[in-house]
Amino acid sequence: MKKYFALLILALILTAGVRAQAYVTKNGYIRFYSEAPMEKIEGINRQVNVAMLPATGDFVFKVLMKSFNFEKALMQEHFNENYVESDKYPEATFLGKITNIKAINFAKDGSYPAMVEGKLTIHGVTQVVKQNGTITINKDIVSAKAKFTLLLADYKISVPSTVVNNISKSLEITVDAAMEKLNK
Amino acid sequence: MKLWIKILIGLVVIGIIAAFVVYKFLINKPHPDFENLKPDYTLDAASFYKEFNTSKENANKLYNGKIIEITGKLTRVESADTLTIAVFAFEQDIFGEKGLRCTMLKKFGADAMKFKPDGIVRIKGYCTGYNGTDVVMEQCSIVY
User: Fold this and answer.
1) Most exposed: A11, A47, A154, B143, by fewest CB within 10 Å?
2) Are A144 and A175 in contact (CB under 8 A)?
3) Would you call B80 and A80 a contact, using CB atoms and an 8 Å cutoff?
4) So what's the ipTM on this one?
5) Min distance A146 CA to chain B CA atoms (Å)
6) pLDDT of the residue at A161
7) Does the domain spanning B34-142 belong to CATH 2.40.50.140?
8) Which of B26, B94, B128 lies closest to A66 in CB terms?
9) Residue A9 maps to a domain
């Protein structure tokens, strides 16, 4: 996986040319939230690696599952042990592209709609996803924001039958990554 | 009072206490006291990073989800949003620095900000894995 990631990054850089400018952050924010009659579940991860190449629109996320923090310790345990099985699948990744990257003017401050398409891997299961988000340019900071819903079943995350009515079958995901230009 | 009423009251009281105990210590149990947990492993920061960089799978099996105490030469302390992060950088690649990133517990944030770059520090935290560039530790405390 490490080699794969390194190769991918290398490929991103090569396809973008040697002078490609990247925007990165190691403190991206991902929140997931689910609301069901018995239980509201919220997990927040502020240590998400995010990288984007404006020249090509390539967009990468790396998420460590154990870095999700919960208000209740028991929820955190259940999330890691029963749902995402973070010992077996310690990471989630998104590898994709901003398909309308040409419509975003990185030289001009402002907020631009972004269409993102790519492969999201969670719990060892990869799905093709297509979502809309926003890219905001503010001087040298590029912020990527999105909110979308995913179904637990799509990622083979099973909910034990004893609590199946207490837990929502979908999760609302909020992504917020303020990236800085990487000096080259 | 009749005996059966006394027994019934006794059972109800036991039931209420049991429900309270389950709620308090199971459903609503507190997060681990990371600051006072004994480390599972005590390591040199550079070797710890190297183990992940050499074989993520093996290092994950050993250290992911464990309490690790590391000692090493600090690169700097960053603050991002409400977080204070002690950074140990060991390599550079196309995506910048690679190394260890330790998110401090709130109560250690101010003391961590006083760390001098290049100083030797000892930090204990909960290892959440390696994301391809950094080994991440959360809930970190300073070991004085």
Assistant:
1) A11
2) yes
3) no
4) 0.84
5) 19
6) 66
7) yes
8) B128
9) no
- Tens of pLDDT, residues A131-152: 999 999 998 899 999 999 999 9
Is residue B85 a contact partner of residue B78, using CB atoms and an 8 Å limit?
yes
Q: For residue B63, give the amino acid letter.
A: Y
* Mutation target vs A (from B54, B133, B139; most A CBs, 10 A cutoff): B133
How far is Cα of residue A106 from the mean position of the Cα atoms in its chain?
Answer: 21
Tokens of B123: 């930090």
Q: How close A37 gets to chain B, by Cα (Å)?
A: 16
B128 contact residues in A (CB cutoff 8 A): 47, 64-67, 90
Range of the domain at A73: 22-181
Q: Where are the domains of chain B?
A: 1-30, 34-142
User: Quick check: B33 contacting A, CB < 8 Å?
Assistant: no
**Residue A115 forms part of a structural domain:** yes
Per residue in B24-39, pLDDT tens? 777 788 899 999 999 9
Q: What is the pLDDT of residue A163?
A: 63
Q: Tell me the two tokens of residue A146.
A: 């999105």
**CA A128 → CA A116, A174, B20, distances in Å?**
11, 18, 46
The number of angstroms, rounded, from the C-alpha of B33 to the middle of its chain's C-alpha atoms is: 9
Q: Report d(CA A60, CA A48) in Å as an integer.
A: 10
CATH number at residue A119: 2.40.128.110
Total number of domains constituting chain A: 1
Phi-psi region for residue A139, left (φ > 0), alpha (ψ -120 to 50) or beta? left
Q: Checking phi first, is residue A5 left (phi over 0); if not, alpha (psi -120 to 50) or beta?
A: alpha
Cα A79 versus chain centre, distance: 17
Give the pLDDT mean for A168-181: 92
